[in-house]
Amino acid sequence: MSLKQRVPLLRWSFWRMALGSRNITRTGQIGDGREAAAVRYVLANARRGDIDDVLTAIDRYAYDESFLINVGDEKGELLDAAVRRAAPALALELGTYCGYGALRIARAAPTARVYSIELSADNAENARRIWEHAGVGDRVTCLVGTIGDGGQTLDTLADVHGFIQGSVDLVFLDHDKNAYLTDLQSLLDRGWLHRGTIVVADNVKIPGAPKYRAYMREQQGRGWQTVEHKTHGEYGSVIPDLVLESDFLG
């Protein structure tokens, strides 16, 4: 890969994303159509039913075409390892975007049911098309909503999808960084986590989730056991980032 590909600050698509940051928080998309273009690229270039090839195609698009705010390949390996360690029967992702994180979870836990919560209906549809192409559409489900919508999404997970006390084995946080702590607390209030549930949180340094990080540090050895993985921002090797991997102690 070229220097331009490994240093996102040199890429126009990175700066276009930065300029569209308000769109991201409001609509879940950058605002220039790159998410829909990523779907078209995957469907045209990845073998149907081959989850590895689909993930590779998404990474290639993010490096060669337009920068994406997926967890990415480097941090994705940390997610993979946590998923394998959790061996989940039921996994919950907050923040679907183009469906990349859920794909990695589905690949690392091939018998798991994976649920992903997404603010944007357009993102949800994009993700479903990618999951179907990868051959996992029958066990990866996207719900449009937020954990902070007054209980509507949580109630749907419980009443329609069978989320019950102690049923969630893995949680992946990759949505609104300001909501990490409050949304985790909502899951705890429902009693869905159990001793040994693993929670992975992306982008804890950039853009940053300081309240979440402070909570995990304060709870270290009490409610949670956390490892902070030093890594880099999506699709680059320069900007530092943190991925937190936390075991719930019950």
UniProtKB/TrEMBL annotation:
Listed InterPro entries: SAM-dependent_MTases_sf (IPR029063), SAM_O-MeTrfase (IPR002935)
Pfam family, one: Methyltransf_3
PROSITE patterns: SAM_OMT_I
Enzyme Commission number, as recorded: 2.1.1.-
Keywords from the UniProt entry: Methyltransferase, S-adenosyl-L-methionine, Transferase
PANTHER family named in the record: CATECHOL O-METHYLTRANSFERASE 1-RELATED
Protein's name according to its UniProt entry: O-methyltransferase
